[in-house]
Design goal:
Layout: H1 21-34, E1 42-44, H2 52-63, E2 68-70, H3 75-96, H4 101-110, E3 119-128, E4 131-141, E5 144-145, E6 151-154, H5 163-176, E7 183-187, H6 190-203, E8 210-215, E9 227-229, H7 244-271, H8 285-295, H9 298-303, H10 306-310, H11 317-330
Parallel strand pairs: 1-2, 3-7, 7-8
Antiparallel strand pairs: 3-4, 4-5, 4-6, 8-9
Helix pairs in contact: 3-7, 5-6
């Protein structure tokens, strides 16, 4: 980055499997800049490195000016680091899938599949307390997105909060269309996996796709890795953080999750009514009246920023933040 513009990027592959992220990053910094690479005034890193002050002093002596190296915690620079990490993960996935089939063969072995999954479809649902429920499907072929295979579904048969029922409906409608992949990847846990298996057993039987589910790590329980659930197995399998198979499954999961949220937000934005304010803690009859009196319409409330909301009598800064966040997450 120079003057706020991205000037370029490069990927570097490490074949060694040992070492923490911080250790690998520290070794890379020392090796990369020791070769005479351009040294900027500021270097942002994604992990806490024990020898950051020493490395910063060394780089300062090499460049002849003070060099600041640190891990940003918030703000735009934190977002830049997040982008760099995402690009690194994508690069790793791309490298692993360079031949396409190599990754698919490895996945078949890791997930104990009966055939190589040349095509994989990811499934996810999105709703707000059971309202405006939608489902989405994304398709990957030989490790790469196949956007012609992306699909959106409005959930029609299930009422209320029933994630398993919604997933079952979407899969049932998808199966009816035919042209099925070798693998269904479900965003969820064992319950979602069983819901999908039940539909496949009653429709296509053993001729249907294999199914696995991926669930995010529960940090409250001290988990640090996403969990992969397989049919007929009680406990999930845990792949190593840098495993190309895990990274690919996460990529599919994140893609379908992003699409589901985007589709749901689009529908929610069209369907917001004044009664939706009742879903926000702290908004009662009087505050709702004050908001409408001030902004004149529901759409104006939705589009108002946090500062504008806080300018309404009776709306505190914290409540304004809650209102703004509610519409940001659920449709705006």
């Amino acid at each position: 980055m120079r003057r706020g513009y991205l000037m370029g990027s490069r990927h570097f592959m490490f074949r060694a499997q040992s070492g923490t992220a911080a250790e690998v990053l520290e070794a890379f910094l020392k090796q990369y800049y020791a070769k005479g690479a351009f040294i900027p005034r500021e270097i942002l890193v994604s992990s806490d490195i024990q020898e950051l002050p020493a490395i910063g002093g060394w780089l300062s002596s090499l460049s002849g000016r003070k060099v600041r190296i640190y891990r940003p915690i918030r703000g735009e620079k934190r977002k830049l680091v997040g982008m760099a990490v995402a690009n690194a993960e994508s690069g790793l996935i791309g490298d692993a899938a360079a031949g396409g089939m190599e990754l698919m063969e490895k996945m078949a072995k890791s997930l104990r599949l009966r055939e190589i999954p040349r095509s994989v479809e990811g499934f996810d649902i999105s709703n707000l307390l059971g309202e405006q429920a939608v489902g989405t499907v994304v398709r990957f072929v030989n490790g790469q997105p196949y956007r012609s295979g992306y699909r959106n579904y409005r959930i029609k048969r299930v009422q209320g909060i029933d994630d398993y029922g919604m997933m079952a409906e979407m899969v049932s409608r998808r199966v009816a269309k035919g042209d099925l992949p070798e693998l269904f990847l479900v965003d969820g846990g064992k319950g979602h996996l069983h819901a999908v298996l039940k539909i496949l057993e009653s429709t296509v039987g053993e001729d249907g796709p294999a199914v696995v589910a991926i669930a995010k790590a529960d940090e409250k329980r001290g988990e640090n890795r996403d969990k992969i659930y397989l049919p007929g197995r009680k406990n999930p399998i845990l792949l190593e953080p840098g495993d190309p198979v895990l990274l690919f499954l996460m990529r599919v999961r994140d893609e379908v999750h992003r699409r589901a949220i985007l589709y749901h937000r689009t529908l929610r934005k069209k369907a917001f009514t004044l009664s939706d304010l009742d879903l926000i803690p702290g908004i009662g009859k009087e505050r709702k009246k004050k908001l409408l009196t001030h902004f004149k319409s529901m759409q104006a409330i939705i589009e108002a920023g946090q500062d504008a909301l806080a300018g309404v009598p009776g709306i505190s800064t914290s409540l304004a933040k809650e209102i703004s966040q509610f519409f940001l997450e659920n449709g705006n």
